[in-house]
Amino acid sequence: MSENKSGADALYGVDCQVMGCKYHHPGGQCSAANIKVEAPDAAKKTETFCGTFAPNSSC
After folding, report:
1. pTM of this prediction?
2. Rounded to whole angstroms, how far apart are CA atoms 14 and 21?
3. How many other CB atoms are found less than 10 A from the CB of residue 23?
4. Per-residue pLDDT tens for 4-27?
5. How far is CA 19 from CA 40, 41, 56, in A?
6. What is the domain count for the chain?
7. What is the C-alpha to C-alpha distance for residues 10 and 38, in angstroms, rounded to an integer?
8. What SS3 state is found at 43?
9. Would you say 33 and 1 are in contact if contact means Cβ atoms under 8 Å apart?
10. Is 55 a member of any domain?
11. Residue 59 falls within a domain, yes or no?
12. Distance (Å, rounded) from C-alpha 12 to C-alpha 56?
């Protein structure tokens, strides 16, 4: 996944509550240039996950 160059722009409509992700920004915003939702055989939301997740430097 490519990183958002500015680090400040958020993906419209993408809510991120993962404080430990380097793309998480105040207000629950995601600043990744794009996201990847993984688990191709998922049948419910609890079986999916964000493949773009990367730990932030404080983790």
Report:
1. 0.69
2. 14
3. 24
4. 444 457 888 888 999 999 999 888
5. 25, 27, 9
6. 1
7. 20
8. coil
9. yes
10. no
11. no
12. 21
